[in-house]
Amino acid sequence: MVYYIYLTVLCIAAARIAEEFGCDAIGIQYQQGLKDLLPASDLVEGLLNNSIRPPVKTTAGKVIRAGQPILHFNEADECAGLDSLMTYRVHRALGQPVENTLHDLRWGDFDATGTVDDYVWVFLISGAAPPAHHIGGYRGTDSHRQPPMYFRLGGGTVRGIAKPGEIVWSRVFVADGKLKMDLGRAKVVKLPRAETERRWQETSPEWPIMHAVTYGVSRDEMMARHAANHIQVAYAKSADEADLAVYTKAALARELGLEVSLCGTKADGYPF
After folding, report:
1. How far is CA 183 from each of CA 104, 134, 221, 258, rounded to the nearest angstrom?
2. pLDDT in tens, 47-101
3. Which member of 50, 72, 93, 112 has the greatest number of CB atoms within 10 A?
C-alpha cells in the first residue's frame, strides 16, 4: 500500500512540475541518483509516456495535458529527452503514434526457433516504456519487482512484449563538440514465447522487451557506430509512413543545427 501511495504522489508531482515550469519533457535521475533512497520509478515513467494514462490535475483542478503523454526520458539522458521531444512533435504533425521511448541496445542473436530468419536485436529498458508499445496495450502489460542489484528498495517495472510493426530508431549524442543524430529504420517482430523467455532470462526478465530487426545495418556496423547503449524508438502505421517520419525528423534536426546521419536502408532495401 505504501508503494502505491508513493507511485501516486510521484506521478502527480512529476506531472505538476512539468506543467508549472513549462517542461516539454522531464527526466528522473533514476538508478545512480535514487536507487539507495527510493523504490524504482519505472511504473510512473511508463504511464507518463502513454497518451492514455491516469489523469493528473493541477491544484486548480485542471487536467494536465489531457490525451497527451508527458514525455519522460529515463536515466536523466538529456539527449534522449531532446530526441523524444522531436519525435513527439514530428509524429503528432504526421498523424503517427506519438508514444516513444528509449531502450537499451542490449545484444542480438538469430531466432533459435527458426521462426524469423533475420538477426534480431534485444532492445530492453527498465523504465519509460509506454503500454501502447506492448502487445495488447495495458492488457498485455504487467509489473515485476525490480531486482535488488538495481533497486534494493524494489519498485515495479512496466513490463510487456513490444508489438510487431514498423519503427523509426534514432540516437541524439554529442561528439567532437557537436550535437548529432543518427536515424534509421527497423521492424519489430513477434517471436515464439519460448524464444522471448530465453532472451528475457539472458538479460533482465523484469523489464519490457522489443525484438527489433534493423534495415541495412548489420550487428557489427551498429556496434561500431553506436557509442551509447541508448536507442530511441517510435512506431509508425506503415513502412512508407515510417520512412516519411525519418525524412521529416532528419529535416527538423538539420534545421535545428544537428549533424544528421541516415543509417542503413528503408524497408525495401533502397537507400534513403
Report:
1. 16, 22, 14, 12
2. 999 999 999 999 999 999 999 999 988 777 889 999 999 999 999 999 999 999 9
3. 72
Q: How far apart are CA 92 and CA 266, in angstroms?
A: 21
What is the predicted pLDDT for the residue at 29? 72
Residue 269 in domain: no
Q: Which residues is 171 bridged to in the sheet?
A: 182
Residue 23 cell numbers, joined? 517542461
- The pLDDT assigned to 3 comes to 59
Task: Give residue 199's domain range.
Answer: 78-262
Question: How far is 200 from 213, CA to CA, in rounded Å?
Answer: 17
CATH code of the domain containing 103? 3.20.14.10
Query: Which helix (H) or strand (E) segment is 121 a member of?
Result: strand 119-124
Q: What is the mean pLDDT of the chain?
A: 92
Question: Average of pLDDT values for 10-30?
Answer: 89
- Total tally of structural domains belonging to the chain: 1
| pTM of model > 0.90 | yes
Find the radius of gyration of the CA atoms of the chain: 18
| 225's grid cell | 557506430
Instruction: Round to whole Å and give the CA distance between 213 and 192.
Output: 15
Element (H, E) at 259: strand 259-262
Residue 2 in domain: no
Question: What is the distance between the alpha carbons of residues 85 and 181, in angstroms, rounded to a whole number?
Answer: 13
Q: How far apart are CA 153 and CA 146, in angstroms?
A: 8
Residue 201, domain member (yes or no): yes
Does 110 map to a domain? yes
Asked if 235 and 99 touch (Cβ cutoff 8 Å), the reply is yes
